[in-house]
Structure formats: C-alpha cells, structure tokens
Amino acid sequence: PPTPPAPPSAPPHPPVVPPSGFIVRCVVPSKRTPVPVTPKLAALGSSGRIVGGVPVFYPRQFQFQASLQYSNGYPFCGGALISSEWVVTAAHCVPQQGSVGQVAIGMHRISTAASDDCVQTRTVIRRFVHPDYDSGTLDSDIALLQLSEAVDYGPIALHTDSSFESAGTSVTVSGWGDTSEGGSPPDVLMHVGVPVVADEVCNTMYSGGITANMICAGITEGGKDSCQ
C-alpha cells in the first residue's frame, strides 16, 4: 500500500488567539464567613462625622458596612451587618415614629449607588431598640434591625471578650459622615483609626457622662474622630 504522507510540522509559534475578556462587576465573598477588621474592631459611623479619615482602599473593603438611608437613598446613619439579615446600629439612629427608610449593604459611593449592581438594598421589617436606651444620656445606645431579605455579604466578626476595650487599643470608625466642621458628607466611604480611651480619662473630659455601656475612643488633642 502507498505510504501515508508525513504529518505537517508544528508551526514555529502558537496560533494567535483573538483577544477576549470579561468585566467583573461585583465580587461578593461568602456571606457565611465573618469578616475580621484591622485594627481589632470596626466602630461604625452614624449621623456624626469621620474627621481626619481617608477613603477605604477599595470598594467593599468593609463588606459588613450598612448604610441607613432615607427613602430617596441618602444615608443618615451607619451600622454593621451581624448576620445575613440583621444589622446593629445606634438607637439614636432609629426614629421613634415612622420607618427607618431602607438599608443598603455593599455601597461604596453615594453618587453611584443607584446604578451599582453590588449594592443590595432592603427595607426593615422589625426593629429592636435597647429597653434601657436613654436619649438624653445616650446610655445603652444600641438597636437591631431585621432586613426584609437576606443579603450576600459577610457579617462583621464580633468579639467574645472585652480585651479590645483596653485603653490604647486601636479601633476603626467608618461611615459617610462629614469630614470637617461645617463640611459636606464625602461621596465615598471613609474610615479612620482611633485609640480606645480609659473611662476615667473620658469621664473627666465629659463631666462623668460615660457609663459602663459605652466605649470611649479618640485622640485627646483632636484631629481624628467620628464626630466634629
């Protein structure tokens, strides 16, 4: 029989593949894994300010960050996701009458939140304000909000001991609060690191207004804080 022809030799270079690709719109980590924060604790900004802070290093760096919003989508307080459908916030952020409005998780910029596919917005179906909350002294200033539907973001890692309350421990405050006296809120999520201050020192500065239910943090000379 005739001898079959030899196979063609391999080309000197691999064939050229037309360029292709895709755009990653949103990467959501596992919602079951609590997210640790460095420094040790994230103290979430409320209706106050983030003074002396800087923008987060990348979108969703604090994936547990919650934004309490008016019905028009503008934030008025912050909070932290503690499970797929529960948010902890300050009691003074929860109106005594009427609804909270809505809660957004995964928001980075206020100006683009409406078109950001990573933002998951929920209504609040239940709220629990601490029964001992005092609006005058802000004692027991904590509340829980149940979302209308679970979200796909990881909750904050909660500490099981009080070691982070030791004076000098660095904690992180984050939010969209004003960055200066009389200034305007930033468009992007901000954060700032501040040290825990001993209760006796804080009570001297605040005329005995610090209770055992509060954590005092900040810099005595000013410049970095969650309030102006």
**Order of secondary-structure elements:** EEEEEEEEEEEH
Radius of gyration: 24 Å
DSSP strand (E) fraction? 15-25%
Helix content: under 10%
Category by helix and strand content: mainly beta
Strand order of the largest sheet: 7-6-3-4-5-9-8
Let me know the number of strands. Answer: 11
User: Low-confidence parts, pLDDT < 50 over ≥5 residues?
Assistant: 7-25, 37-47
Give the CATH level 1 class of the domain at 61-147.
Mainly Beta
Q: Note the main sheet.
A: 7 strands, antiparallel
Q: Under CATH, the topology of the domain at 61-147 is which?
A: Thrombin, subunit H
CATH superfamily of the domain at 61-147: Trypsin-like serine proteases
Instruction: Give the CA-based shape.
Output: globular
- Average pLDDT rating: 78
Number of helical elements: 1
CATH architecture of the domain at 61-147: Beta Barrel
